[in-house]
Design the sequence.
């Protein structure tokens, strides 16, 4: 059984087909390199697996659990998939407050005031 399985995954941005009908099976512990020229869809493919983009077609499953498909879409923070961006970036699907809260413990996340206080301290340069 594949640990990561993509079937017929496609994603377009207007008339541009960034990822088209991709099938991929990765086993547990398997290392894979995605290579290609700039603009060929490498980052879009990774963003689809991580859940930062929703596929237009196809399905994505990890560990036998469907994360994206015709009737399914699991949010990125619930996928337990790590991604390191090439450049410093925020999670595009989250608000500023949610991006700040992402790095806090669960207990702290529940305390909205604490999040806002940390943001204010940062803004003030402290």
Sequence:
């Amino acid at each position: 059984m594949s640990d990561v399985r993509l079937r017929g995954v496609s994603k377009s941005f207007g008339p541009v087909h960034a990822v088209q009908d991709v099938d991929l099976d990765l086993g547990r512990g398997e290392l894979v390199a995605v290579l290609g020229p700039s603009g060929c869809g490498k980052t879009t493919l990774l963003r689809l697996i991580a859940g930062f983009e929703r596929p237009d077609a196809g399905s994505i499953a990890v560990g036998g659990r469907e994360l994206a498909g015709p009737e399914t879409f699991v949010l990125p923070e619930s996928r337990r998939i790590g991604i390191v961006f090439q450049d410093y970036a925020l999670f595009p699907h989250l608000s500023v407050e949610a991006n700040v809260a992402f790095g806090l413990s669960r207990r702290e996340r529940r305390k909205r005031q604490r999040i806002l206080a940390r943001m204010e301290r940062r803004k003030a340069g402290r």
Notes: The mean pLDDT is 85. The helical segments are 42-50, 96-102, 106-109, 112-123.
